[in-house]
Amino acid sequence: MHFACGGNSSPSSPASSSPAATNTPTFTPTFTFTQACFLGASPSCTPTFTSTSTNTFTITYTPTITWTFTLTKTPTYTNTRTPTAAQSVTCLIASQAGNTSVGTSFLSGAGNLLASQIAMPSYGGLQSLAVHLQTATGSVRVAVYSDSSGPSGLIVQSATQTAVNGWNTIAIPPTYIYSGTYWLVCQVQNSTQVAYIAGGSTNTAAQAWGAFPGSYPGGGSLATATLSIYVNYCSEPSPTPTPSWQLVGGGAATSGSGQLPVLRVSGGTPYLAFGDCSNACRASVVEYTSGAWTSLGDISSGYAEAIGFNIYSGTPYIAYVDGANNYQAYVQSYSGGWSLVGSGAAVPVSVYYSLSLDVSTGAPYLAWINYATGEPTLQEYTAGSWTAIGASPFMAVSISALSLAMNGTTPYVACSYVTTGSVYVDQLMEYSGSSWVALGAAVTVTNPLNTDNQALTVVSGTPYLNTGDNILKYTAGSWATVGGSFGTGMGDNCWSSLYNDGGTYYLSFTTGGCCNSYCPGNIEMEKSTGSSWSVIGSSSISSSPVTWGTNSLAVYSGTPYIAYSNNSSGKIWVSEYH
Question: In the chain, where are the structural domains located?
Answer without folding.
Answer: 1-67, 71-235, 245-577
